[in-house]
């Protein structure tokens, strides 16, 4: 593995960008049966009538890679009127439609009906054609959704350049620095309610019910007298207690605010100091931000990045281990002229074209983010290599491009608007790519 620089970060393949290397699959079938098709396999699902037991059998032996997308609306119940003497037709049957639109008719026990006379009667009913048409409409909708999702996932895998950020200017960083303000601790409201004569009277009334006793004729008067005798004293005591608690709360919060505001002020100063270092291209600050960024994002491909930051010249040098062309999704789901779902294998020309878009898009994506680490990054030299087999079958690591980018090519530009190949080839580079999109090995630049 090529390592020209001392710092390396691996970007793991993850779900930050949804993708599928093999398209989707279509599942059609009800609770008693159906068919699931996808890349390299076709599975027939059979249910045992009257139970919740289902058996799946893979009828092709190649290794499955497909991400399955289950669909519904595969069966319909149809009531059939007996119209032919001597033909025993079930009162209700179920229609099942497979991924190719073929109809299977089951009786009430979940058993397939094969008797031609019974099938003929069922198919002559108006309900049959109505339900068959509804199933076909739903099947076409599901197929369209799968084809569209497959196309979207394929483009997300290929057009990584569209994830490139707009690169900020030095003025943006300085405005960000000027906007840094310390947080401020906010004292919460004292929630204990202020004592009132009504609230104290209510407490005394409850006490009187417990403490004051007497005859039925005198107890009411005695309890009222208890309340009046204690009201003013208890009200004054409650107010004094409330004021003491409020003062304690206020003193505690003022101390807490002083400590918190001091911490926030220190934190703000540290942020400003770090931003100043970043704007001026400090080696440690730039490396810290670059490491944190490149370790946090996820792509649909796995790459490794070796880098070196040269503050004196404002150059960020990147060496990238690209995915192999064999890692590209080699199929895509399509809809045939007859309205069926088909997994189409891409041609070698299509794979080479998409591989070129992917690897040049990675150059744009990584460089844009490198420029966005600090306004002191004025140039990016990005060189990329991939593993390839030679004629003898040996696996080699070949550099396929080495490109020099200046900051003004990225700053304030919407990278998603550019064709990755054209964008990368309109700047100083070493790249030997044939008309058939075949990359020949090159010797990368050693410096900007």
Characteristic key phrases:
448 residues, alpha+beta, 38% helix, six-stranded mixed sheet, five-stranded mixed sheet
A few lines on this structure:
The chain is built from 8 helices and 18 strands. It is of the alpha+beta class.
Spell out the helices and strands N to C.
EEEEEEEEEHHHHHHEEEEHEEHEEE
Number of helices: 8
Percent in strands: 15-25%
Q: Please tell me what the overall shape is.
A: flat
Terminal CA distance reads 23 Å
Strand order of the largest sheet: 1-10-11-14-15-16
Describe this structure in words.
- This protein has 448 residues and is an alpha+beta fold.
- It contains eight helices and 18 strands.
- It has helices spanning 116-124, 126-158, 170-178, 197-211, 219-279, 283-296, 348-371, 420-425, and strands at residues 7-11, 26-30, 33-38, 41-47, 54-58, 69-70, 75-79, 92-97, 103-106, 303-310, 315-321, 331-335, 341-345, 379-389, 395-406, 429-430, 432-433, 439-440.
- α3 (170-178) runs antiparallel to α5 and α4 crosses α5 (219-279).
Blueprint of the fold:
Elements: E1 7-11, E2 26-30, E3 33-38, E4 41-47, E5 54-58, E6 69-70, E7 75-79, E8 92-97, E9 103-106, H1 116-124, H2 126-158, H3 170-178, H4 197-211, H5 219-279, H6 283-296, E10 303-310, E11 315-321, E12 331-335, E13 341-345, H7 348-371, E14 379-389, E15 395-406, H8 420-425, E16 429-430, E17 432-433, E18 439-440
Parallel strand pairs: 2-6, 11-14
Antiparallel strand pairs: 1-10, 2-3, 3-4, 4-5, 7-8, 8-9, 10-11, 12-13, 14-15, 15-16, 17-18
Helix pairs in contact: 3-5, 4-5
